[in-house]
Structure to design on (161 residues):
């Protein structure tokens, strides 16, 4: 009877394939963690879709989009708090210009800071108490006709993020 052992080179290659497969599965899952798609319904009832990363923890909110070199035109970051309050942001260590949309607990956009300049230490405040803040690429609010009065179409943000 012949012994059918796998040669060490083949065994190493198979183990590398298995490791690569599981590493890819894990990193794909991890990179999709805290992500969601949201819909902004403009005042004239157009739907605008964004794939967002959700900033829920204090550390996620503190870091935000700092040190990112790019952001897709359909991407953004959604900051989520438990209750409405005046919110303040700055662009220090942020490498891309942004539109900052301030959204109250009724999912209504109450004000927008358009084209916030990268690297600026100027404090950007919401004009009204808000529960959510959406950061998107500078100019996307104007291009998509997103103005105060627009609303988020997704009502269960905490279930999605």
């Amino acid at each position: 009877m012949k012994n059918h052992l796998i040669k060490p080179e083949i065994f190493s290659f198979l183990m590398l394939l298995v490791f690569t497969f599981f590493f890819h599965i894990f990193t794909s899952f991890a990179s999709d963690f805290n992500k969601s798609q949201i819909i902004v319904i403009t005042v004239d009832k157009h739907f605008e879709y964004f794939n967002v990363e959700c900033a829920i923890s204090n550390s996620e909110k503190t870091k935000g989009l700092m040190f990112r070199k790019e952001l897709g035109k359909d991407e953004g970051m959604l900051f989520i708090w438990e209750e409405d309050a005046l919110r303040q942001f700055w662009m220090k260590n942020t490498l891309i210009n942004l539109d900052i949309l301030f959204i109250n607990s009724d999912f209504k956009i109450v004000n927008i800071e358009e084209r916030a300049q990268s690297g600026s230490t100027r404090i950007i405040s919401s004009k009204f108490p808000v529960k959510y803040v959406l950061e998107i690429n500078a100019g996307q609010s104007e291009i998509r006709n997103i103005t105060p009065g627009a609303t988020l179409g997704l009502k269960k943000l905490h279930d999605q993020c």
